[in-house]
Prior knowledge:
Blueprint: H1 9-55, H2 57-63, H3 66-85, H4 89-117, H5 122-125, H6 131-134, H7 154-169, H8 173-192, H9 198-231
Helix pairs in contact: 1-9, 3-4, 3-7, 4-9, 7-8, 7-9
Amino acid sequence: MIHEFQINNHKYIKLILLFFILGLIAIFVFDKYLFNIINIYCTPTLISGYNNIKKNTDVYNILTSENLILGISLLFIASAIYRKFSKFKKTMLLFIVYQLVCSIFLIALKLCLKTIFARCSPLFCFSPENLWNTYDFGFRWMAFQSGFLSFPSGHCFITAYSLMLIINMLGSNLTKTICLSGFVILFLSLIVFNFHFLGDCLIGTALGLLWGLISINMWNILIRKFNSIAIC
């Protein structure tokens, strides 16, 4: 018999709703002001080292790529899968295939949402053309082009999804703390270095947690049906 995940759906639903609400508040109220505060007080003290990396285009593109985040996340997920299912080889293989399918859907959903909402990134929004005022809160609907792919944050979407799986597969509090700390650092750096607005990151996190919750519950449903057929 294959074991399913034990997960508190109500707790995660409340957390997801909280991130969605905070994200909407940030988009309509705080994003513009937070951008100004960060670029006056925070970013100038950090930007010199950042610019040195940015000069090397190849290194910069690799370090800021969502594909890098996806690759690292998949490595962590693979490690967590091995630790959870190491004694159940067939289950491990089945879960790996299942997660690959879920990851493909995640990437497709992320690209669809970025295309539909087409929000300008912070530096584009507050360029000399002031696109923030040209388009409502920086949203230029259905425009798949560079500079208009900020919403939702793909980095937060992918990482929150991975975090959801890892936390529910590993029992070690130390591992959970390390993963959560890494996520917080990523979240803050995306805002401080003007990759995303706060609202982009909050909504991206909410979507990642939601997709993770759906993924886990779909797995549990599939396993219940599998077990019931096996028993019969």
